[in-house]
Design a protein that fits this description.
single chain; alpha+beta; Aminopeptidase; 5 helices; 8 strands; globular
């Protein structure tokens, strides 16, 4: 059994999303903001959520050692959202992504989790560039990316997706 990098902040644990997270992921993927801002992934059962993890998250984790992380509040072990670094076709560098259940939004959890993963990307992975993509109308994601010091750098369309997305970039300035 492979053991992957996990992360800990003052309030959060971030662990690689696994099959045991399927019930939580089913809830998140079907939340109104996920469907509105990310899109309907047609995951309607726990079995479909398990398949989504196995086919969409696990391959990158096996290939690169990082992927999607379930964000857990340390104080009560509640699964609140996800945050990850994604190697997306059509983007240079990795893309940071985050999504939380509505009751956990606006409390700084996404900022805390994203900051931890950006630090990992710089210190451990030595990635020179991280990108963030979002719909123009997704003001919450845009504000978070700007708070994380990403700079708007135009638009992008991902392969096989007609939607034009705003593209933000963050250049890591690190020393080995």
């Amino acid at each position: 059994m492979n053991v992957y990098q996990s992360f800990e902040t003052d309030r959060l644990l971030l662990k690689a999303t696994s099959k045991e997270d399927a019930p939580f992921l089913l809830q998140l993927l079907n939340s109104p903001k996920w469907i509105q801002n990310i899109g309907d992934r047609n995951v309607k059962t726990i079995e479909a959520a398990e398949k989504y993890i196995q086919e969409r998250m696990k391959p990158q984790l096996l290939r690169l050692g990082y992927s999607n992380y379930t964000v857990i509040r340390k104080s009560d072990q509640v699964k609140m959202g996800t945050c990850g670094l994604y190697d997306r076709e059509g983007l240079e560098g990795v893309d940071i992504g985050f999504a939380f259940l509505p009751e956990y939004e606006g409390q700084g959890y996404a900022f805390e989790a994203s900051t931890e993963l950006m630090d990992f990307a710089a210190r451990v992975l030595s990635l020179p560039l991280i990108q963030g993509i979002t719909l123009e109308e997704n003001l919450a994601s845009r504000k978070l990316l700007e708070k994380l010091n990403f700079k708007l750098d135009g638009t992008v369309k991902l392969p096989n997706d007609p939607v034009e997305l705003l593209r933000y970039k963050f250049h890591n300035h690190f020393q080995k």
